[in-house]
User: Fold this.
Amino acid sequence: MVRQIIWSRRAQEDRKSIFSYWNKRNKSKVYSKKLNRLFIKAAELLAIHPNIGRVSNKENIRIKVVKDYLLIYEFTTKELRILSVFDTRQNPNKLKNILK
Assistant:
């Protein structure tokens, strides 16, 4: 069953911040567009097969690795909610705050 994909406000802000960083760093939107396609494809795959992500310490929350990023999500029978997009090159203690 295909679930409806919902990007939380935090996940939308995370993506926006990631894309902004890469746009400034590369002086181009090419890489940001590529990353966005990867995030969308991963979310679409998770909407069909939500159990493929790694189980986290918090009940009902799973993690899917996409390049250097983690898609942190939860799901029900009707929807897939992307909670955050975490850059794995950050301080790992920040991840603990997200998974509280």
Observations:
- The domain at 4-98 is CATH 3.30.2310.20 (YaeB-like fold).
